[in-house]
Amino acid sequence: MEKREPRSRKKKTFGLKGWAAVSGITVAAAALIGTLVYIQIGKQYETVFFPNTTINGMDASKKSVDEVKELISREARSYVLSIRERGGNEEQINGSDIGLEPVFDGKLEAVLSEQEPNQWFQHRKTPQTFDIDTMIQFDQDKFREMIDRLPCFQEEGIEKPESAYISGYETGRGYTIVAAKEGNQLDQEKAVSAISQAVLALKPEISLEEAETYMRPQVPTDDPELVSRVQTMNQYTGTTITYNFGGEKTVLDGDTISQWIKTGEDGKVYLDSGAVTSFVKGLASKRDTYNKAKTLKTSYAQTVRITGGVFGWRIDQSAEADELAQLIRSGQSQEREPVYKQKGASHGETDYGNTYVEVNLTAQQLFFYKDGKLVVKTDFVSGNESKGWSTPAGVYSISYKERNATLKGENYRTPVSYWMPFNGNIGFHDASWRNTFGGTIFKTGGSHGCVNLPPASAKIIFENIASGVPVLCYHLPGTESKAASGETAKPEETKPAETKPSQGTTAPATEAPKPTTSAPVPTTEAVTKAPETEPSTSASSPENQEKGPGASSNTGKKEVGPGVVR
């Protein structure tokens, strides 16, 4: 018999697939159960409001419509509105005084019916708020009566708002903005509306300030245009312009500029150009010297007052007014000299300084001072008085100087070595055709208006003088001399060592008389007009003179003054 091995018993195991199937059934069952629970919880929100629900400021979470109505009714019966006013005052309105009562018109039910119950979970942390204004009503007449009784609406207690504005100018401080005043005047329409809305929402309090029911100033303190305007005005008045006139100063500051500031209809700030022009005109009137008489203490120790001529300081009023206005607008303080049309040699009454040519038309003598030192003293021959060609008195200045110029008139053409015009075509020049100078030659044998000089003197003057040097021509009665001098006669001409213009000159130690500062008028004061004297018949008559510019003409026809051909 064949022996059979006994069968081994194999244990059956529950595989992973089996467990997965069981687990899937469990999870699905759990999800199903969860869903059923979620839906079951949501069912309650068919009759109550979601969590985090606020209706008219009241917590309606998980409350039914009836419960919310009860809350509203209870609130209406005990309602009091606190009205907070500007300044800390507080008023109250009782609901019972205005006939406050609830009115339910289905709005609560409508809100509840719009809920999706199965969305309850998302409202656990997401609030929703409803303001329903038809659930409360009050008696409008009683409400208005209560409003009219409130102190904040009483006329006697009202302070109207005032706009901000710019203060007047204050020295050292300028302009400031005077703050607007808020006042406590209510915009009644806004205030009544805001209080009414608060009552309908059963709010416990309302701030009239926060509700923006107060009348506002038309121009607030921080108004951009007002701020810009005051900044501009302070920029103008913060400017200081100091005019320096050789040590004498005129200061223009905010005290004066503030009077020139205007505001246009558009609110823009501008500088009154007429006032600026007027100021510059006054400055010129005080400081200009070109059209004013000069006082000179002559080399004869007598003081003369010279009128006429064009020498002196003259402000260019138009140009200076433009520059001044621009400086003020830009706020650029500075020390300056005005824009001049022409300048003098120095400031003050003696605007001719200490370098000048003194021309005594009466004595026919000239003195040239440089830096206060006498360089040349010489006789000369001036314009022919008998023909009406007298050299005019006045204060002028050297226009330019030229070597080897040609002077010409209607019947002459004469070259000269040194030409120095100072009054149009009237000037200094050498007169080599003359052998005598000074005395009374000028009365009948004078020039066409120029000052004829001995050649040696003309050379020294030419080499030491510059353009712009003042020339003071005057008459001084009592200094007449009938005797003419030769070119080398002494002491009518002082001839220092000759030097080049760039090296200066070795002038004698004689100093120019120092001009007075108070412009005295002594009894010997000269008049700046040619003296009315009869022509002289001295030995130096035209018949004895060589022909040239200034010599007598046989035609008897009046000639014009000498000109220049370059």
Description:
With about 575 residues, this protein is an alpha+beta fold. It is built from eleven helices and 31 strands. The strands form eleven sheets. It has a five-stranded mixed beta sheet with strand order 22-21-20-29-23, with helices on one face. α8 crosses α9. The longest helix has 28 residues, at about 15-45. The N and C termini lie far apart (about 170 Å).
In short:
The chain has 566 residues and is α+β, with helices and mostly antiparallel strands. The chain is built from eleven helices and 31 strands.
SSE diagram, text form:
Blueprint lengths: L15 H28 L9 E3 L2 E2 L5 H14 L1 E5 L5 E5 L6 E2 L4 H7 L14 E3 L5 E2 L2 H10 L15 E2 L10 E2 L9 H13 L4 E3 L16 H14 L3 E5 L2 E5 L1 H4 L3 E3 L5 E3 L1 H15 L6 E4 L5 E4 L7 E2 L1 H14 L3 E3 L3 E3 L13 E5 L4 E6 L2 E7 L14 E4 L4 E7 L4 E11 L2 E5 L5 E2 L3 H5 L5 E3 L1 H10 L5 E5 L10 E2 L76 E3 L1
Parallel strand pairs: 1-6, 3-10, 11-18, 20-29, 26-28
Antiparallel strand pairs: 1-2, 3-4, 5-7, 8-9, 11-12, 13-14, 15-16, 17-19, 20-21, 21-22, 23-29, 24-25, 24-31, 25-26, 27-30
**Beginning-to-end CA distance, first to last residue:** 169 Å
Which value, in Å, is the CA radius of gyration?
55 Å
User: What proportion of the residues form beta strands (DSSP E)?
Assistant: 15-25%
Compute the number of helices.
11
Quaternary state of this entry equals single chain
Q: Give the helix level as a range of percent.
A: 10-25%
As residue ranges, the low-confidence spans are 488-566
Class based on secondary structure composition and strand pairing: alpha+beta
Question: Biggest sheet, open or closed, and with what strands and sense?
Answer: 5 strands, mixed
Task: Kindly report the average pLDDT value.
Answer: 82
| Biggest sheet strand line-up | 22-21-20-29-23
Number of strands: 31
